[in-house]
């Protein structure tokens, strides 16, 4: 193939530099974590999905830091020039704006048998992919992932949620990491979110 038809990576998608390899690339001043860390974070996420799908919410709660902020802002459809306004800011409408204590309260209510919307309970399957982990200057890890959650309840109630998660992880805890902060962005418009009782 002639060089005239080759794409220059430096000009694609606004890229401004080319490094010697993907592991040397920096995003927002953070380099990719090493292979072992990527593997361990991936296993942490798969274990989290297993706990959620099996309804082991008390075990899931152990994966969360005491200073957790668990946030899923509402999104709205905006024109391209208004994209900065499409995600609601902190303090505005959110599907979740939780701490570990408030999530523990939700789980206690769920386990009490008083959460009628979840009796009989939903069945879920969490699929986690596109995991990338970067080292922060403060020693924490910045991890991004994509998810699809399939939820089924009774005979005909089916929901499929898709989106992305931006997490901050700390190297400690029962399973090697604990979740310090999670920001969830759903791909669906707010009007399509019929039931949001599932954890992400």
UniProtKB/TrEMBL annotation:
Species of the source: Microbacterium azadirachtae
Q: Name one GO biological process term.
A: 3-phenylpropionate catabolic process
Which Pfam families does this UniProt record tie to the protein? Ring_hydroxyl_B (PF00866)
UniProt name for this protein: 3-phenylpropionate/cinnamic acid dioxygenase, small subunit
Going by the UniProt record, its keywords in alphabetical order are: Dioxygenase, Oxidoreductase
Q: Does the keyword Cell membrane apply?
A: no
Give the source's domain of life in one word.
Bacteria
Concerning its family, UniProt says: Belongs to the bacterial ring-hydroxylating dioxygenase beta subunit family.
Q: Which GO terms describe its molecular function?
A: dioxygenase activity
User: InterPro entries, from UniProt?
Assistant: NTF2-like_dom_sf (IPR032710), Rng_hydr_dOase-bsu (IPR000391)
Instruction: Fetch the CDD domains from UniProt.
Output: ring_hydroxylating_dioxygenases_beta
Quick check: keyword S-adenosyl-L-methionine in the entry?
no
């Amino acid at each position: 193939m002639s060089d005239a038809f080759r794409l220059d990576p430096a000009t694609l998608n606004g890229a401004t530099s080319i490094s010697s390899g993907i592991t040397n690339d920096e995003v927002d001043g953070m380099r990719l974590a090493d292979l072992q860390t990527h593997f361990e974070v991936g296993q942490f996420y798969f274990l989290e999905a297993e706990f959620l799908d099996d309804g082991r919410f008390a075990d899931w709660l152990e994966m969360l830091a005491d200073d957790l902020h668990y946030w899923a802002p509402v999104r709205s459809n905006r024109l391209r020039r208004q994209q900065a306004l499409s995600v609601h800011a902190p303090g505005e409408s959110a599907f979740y704006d939780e701490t570990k204590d408030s999530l523990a309260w939700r789980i206690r209510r769920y386990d009490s048998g008083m959460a009628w919307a979840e009796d009989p309970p939903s069945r879920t399957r969490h699929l986690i992919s596109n995991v990338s982990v970067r080292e922060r200057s403060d020693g924490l890890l910045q991890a991004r992932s994509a998810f699809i959650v399939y939820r089924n309840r009774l005979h005909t109630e089916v929901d499929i949620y898709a989106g992305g998660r931006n997490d901050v992880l700390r190297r400690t805890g029962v399973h090697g990491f604990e979740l310090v902060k999670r920001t969830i962005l759903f791909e669906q418009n707010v009007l399509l979110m019929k039931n949001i009782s599932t954890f992400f």
